[in-house]
UniProtKB/TrEMBL annotation:
Keywords: Signal. InterPro entries: CusF_Ec (IPR021647), CusF_sf (IPR042230). This is Copper-binding protein. It comes from Sulfuriferula multivorans. It holds the Pfam family CusF_Ec. Residues 1-21 form the signal peptide.
Amino acid sequence: MLLKLSAALILLLALNGTAVADSAHHAGAAKLAGTEANLPLIDGEVKKVDKDTGKLTIKHGPITNLGMPAMTMVFRVNDPAMLDKVKSGDKIRFAADKVSGVLTVMRVEPASAAGGNPQAE
């Protein structure tokens, strides 16, 4: 009887630990998504699309969340599918952040998709 009770207790603890870990994973994903949604959208112009390296060259206005002035620079993209949505010369709005120490475009949309941006160049 004691052996069955011990086995049931171990099983219960193991399942509870899994539920806690799964809950923590989902909370972390929600936090990441919430953080990404809070990034400012910056006006920019695509200068180059490099699908081989997964990078965009963008002439952009100030990026306040990164303390970066207006300039032209190369960014890695968070999702390679973004590279199929833009071409050189496109006016865009994008959100950028530092991911593992690398400046990364987290989101991109056509400039016409939204109104004015106080961070515009």
